[in-house]
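task queued by scheduler; priority normal; single chain, no ligands, no partner chains; default sampling; output format set to structure tokens
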Amino acid sequence: MAVEGKGVLGWREWLALPELGIPRIKAKVDTGARTSALHTFRVEPFEADGVARVRFWVHPLQRRDTPEICCEADVLDRRVVRDSGGHEDLRFVIRTVVALAGDCWPVEVTLTDRDSMGFRMLLGRSAIRGRFLVDPARSYLSERLR
């Protein structure tokens, strides 16, 4: 049953982070996670013109260490985030645009090492609230980014 005005996503989808120069990354759509998370393997905070910023490196493809993309963003916040195992971690939070299913909108993303996880990106419920429903039995319902 479809709900008026809401698209449907599968439990995993391809998306882009155009402001970060990431043309495509496979994300796990996780309604159990409040905030979205992006795998970063190196994070360097710095200041530019009095603004707190962060430079970080991303391997957007699962099980690969190429390509390597260097990104920069303003620091929105630093928050303690509890993972699914109950471990707490202080993470940088940025705001960036996500492109998915023919639409673009700003989302908050925490930066963390997800190398041991199956997906380099986690799309949390705050990012999709009011926009999409999730069908946990399906995958890749949005158009795959090339």
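post-processing summary
- The radius of gyration is 15 Å.
- The CA atoms of residues 88 and 138 lie 31 Å apart.
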